[in-house]
Amino acid sequence: MPSTIDLHTHSTASDGLLAPGELVAAAAEAGVRVLALTDHDTTGGIEAAAAALRPGMTLVPGAEVSCQMRVADGRVISMHVLAYLFDPAEPAFARLRRRVRDSRVNRAQRMVERLVADGHPVSWERIRERAGGTVGRPHIADALVEAGLAADWDEAFGQAWIGHRGRYWVERYEPDVAEALRLIHGAGGVSVFAHPFGQRGPIVAEVDIETMAGLGLSGIEVGHPDHPPATQERLAGIAADLGLFVTGSSDFHGAREGNGRDALGAFGTDAEVLAAIVERATGDTLRTA
Ligand SMILES: [Zn+2]
Ligand SMILES: [Zn+2]
Predict the structure, then answer these.
(1) What is the pLDDT of residues 40-93, one digit of tens each?
(2) Ligand 2: distance of its center to the CA of 150 in Å?
(3) What gap in Å lies between CA 97 and CA 49, rounded to an integer?
(4) How far is CA 72 from CA 43, 180, 217, 252, in A?
């Protein structure tokens, strides 16, 4: 039985495979009644999703915000915070979303520019042409291999080339989590720490979540395809200790064969929690058909 309240999904407005309207239709088919659209650092799909709602469905406008945090053991990690029901026109938070989006687009180009500046035989036009869509590091790695500069992807992603903090690595802009939370709340939004113990990327400690709670974090995404049952239990305990909302969602990015782990409504949120989020938010309202 899929959950009827799914508070974390993506459309083609960011890295999802379905257009906002298609996503809403897929949610309706899956039995999801309340859907949050939370594209990465953009609200670009919200209006199209709202227009596609079917009778009885509700859309929660939102976004998934990229940011970073220096965690208790000293590492700086990238993380995601879900923002719900903020005012999309509030200028400070809108500016932050735009800056993060711009940096994502410009980053690959800046890496190629640095390679060209050092006289390496690669060309942005050719890489972009071959990529067909948004250029990412894999496309640059292909070009390095094709030009005979790197023997294979492993070498291309090494320190001599475009590996993490390697010679031609370009940092992506991510605000500090304190700033992201301040701007979300400043725009009247409610914040939820997305997949805190996800499979990808480093793991934060409980004390780091406590720090975020001190900065006004409202909730933790506990139900998520990356969280096995034991992880969910642990996160639910942390949420209870800190007085945070517990949410659940599919983090759906696109239609997969069958009802896989990323199926819409695979994990859900309790109606009381949704009501509490709506109650706390002052920036925007739920959309209905
Ligand atoms: Zn995420
Ligand atoms: Zn996501």
Answers:
(1) 999 999 999 999 999 999 999 999 999 999 998 888 888 999 999 999 999 999
(2) 33
(3) 19
(4) 32, 19, 17, 30
Residue type, 8: H
* Ligand with an atom nearest the CA of residue 201: 1
Q: What is the pTM of this model?
A: 0.86
How far does residue 102's CA lie from ligand 2's centre (Å)?
Answer: 19
The number of the ligand nearest the C-alpha atom of 67 reads 1
The ligand minimizing its distance to the Cα of 249 is 2
**How many other CB atoms are found less than 10 A from the CB of residue 163?**
17
**Ligand 1: distance of its center to the CA of 238 in Å?**
20
Query: Which SS3 state, helix, strand or coil, does residue 67 take?
Result: strand
What is the domain range of residue 252? 5-88+187-288
Q: Record the tokens describing residue 283, joined without a space.
A: 């920036």
Residue carrying the six token digits 């809403």: 24
Q: How far is the CA of 41 from the centre of ligand 1 (A)?
A: 11
Residue 97 falls within a domain, yes or no? no
* 112-168 pLDDT per residue, tens: 999 999 999 999 999 988 877 677 888 899 999 999 999 999 999 999 999 988 999
* Average pLDDT taken over every residue of the chain: 92
Q: What's the domain count of the chain?
A: 1
Which ligand sits nearest to residue 63's alpha carbon?
2
Residue 30 lies in a domain: yes
